[in-house]
Write a structure and sequence with these properties.
Structural class: mainly alpha
Number of domains: 1
Order of helices and strands: HHHH
Distance between the termini: 88 Å
Shape: elongated
Number of helices: 4
Number of strands: 0
CATH architecture: Orthogonal Bundle
Largest sheet: none
Helix content: 55-70%
CATH class: Mainly Alpha
Strand content: under 5%
């Protein structure tokens, strides 16, 4: 029996890629919209290759995607550092007990 494949229009593909680029997980998004992960990955690669460069910065969509990825990684790192500093401040600001007199 021949397997029937669904055809998705360009608008559906573009919206899926925009969701992916916005930070959604590839596997989660693929499962949610009912396509395979490799298919969604191909759509993203095709979209990034065809997307026009930004007019004001002359950067390609691929460069913008890579910068976005790096900025998200850096943000996560800074949030982790912030949490560590908050915990350290909480520990250091606790009142100390005076030494007990023996």
């Amino acid at each position: 029996m021949k397997r029937r494949t669904r055809q998705h229009d360009e608008t559906f593909r573009r919206r899926a890629v925009e969701l992916l680029i916005s930070g959604r997980s590839l596997n989660d998004l693929a499962r949610e919209i009912g396509v395979s992960s490799p298919t969604l990955w191909r759509w993203k690669e095709r979209y990034l290759a065809q997307a026009p460069a930004e007019a004001d910065t002359n950067r390609s969509a691929q460069e913008v995607f890579q910068e976005n990825k790096e900025l998200r990684r850096r943000l996560k790192e800074l949030e982790t550092h912030h949490e560590i500093l908050k915990k350290a401040l909480g520990i250091l600001s606790q009142p100390t007990l005076p030494p007990s007199m023996s």
